[in-house]
Structure formats: structure tokens, C-alpha cells
Write a structure and sequence with these properties.
seven-stranded mixed beta sheet; globular; 157 residues; Metal Binding Protein, Guanine Nucleotide Exchange Factor, Chain A; single chain; 32% strand; mainly beta
Amino acid sequence: MKIDGACLCGHLSYEADIDPAKVVICHCTQCQIGSASAFRFGVLVAKENFRLLTGVPKTYVKTAENGNLRALTFCPECGTALYGTGVDEQNFFSLRLGTARQRAELKPVSQIWCRSALPWLSGLDGMRKYEQQGRRSQSAQPAPVDPGAGTDRGAVG
């Protein structure tokens, strides 16, 4: 499947050919911290199937739990994570699919590092849902929506 995407500010943009059957969620604590979220949503892409169209990413090298060095790339302007790869061998990129324009079509097929998954993830279906974030006011609360209706088009900050 051909996908394209960009960082939040648009400085970095890319195209990639991916296999949607390889889309995963990673629950490891480093992905939680690096994504500033409960998990990372991504897919492995062969180097020859990824094309950076604009911008030059910044790189941070981390040590993974297994001791391997990983190069994490991100936008130097807005900080959006783009992909991770090996430091010495860069044949595959772990593309962060939150940046893909087609992200709604890319349903994860597996989850890894589940021992680190946050325990409250299984209770999300029972939470109150809102169509969008309301104005910041103690008296004005947004109206709940039907749990099956709508999508999040830009949430908190």
C-alpha cells in the first residue's frame, strides 16, 4: 500500500510503500515515553520503500532494552517523531504511523511488549466521549456524543 505523510508543521514529508499486514502497536515503556502516549503505532518499512520528500530530520540515539543502539528521527522544528532505525544497519525503518495521512485505514494486526501495556487501555470503550474539546471554562462542558459517532479531529494540544 502506498502511503504519504508529514510531521505536525509540514517541515518533513514522505512517501512509503508498506505492507498493512505488518502494522503493530508497541507498548514498551520507551515507546510510551517517546510518543508521549500509551503506545506507538507503526510499521517496518524497507529502506528502498521509504522516500523523504522534504526536510532533514534530527536524530537522537537511544539504547534499547536489549542493548542495541537505535536512531530515532524527528522533526527539528515541531518535534514530531518520524521513524526509528538501527544505528549501524539502516535497512528498515520503523515508521510512526500517526504521521501517515492514511492512518485511519491502517488497523494494527498485532501488539508487542504487552507486559508494559497500561492497564487502563482495556476500559476505553466505557468512557464518556465528546465530538471535540470544548472551550476552557468551568461552566461550559462539551456535550457527550453517541459512542459510535464521529472521530477525533484534533484533541488536546
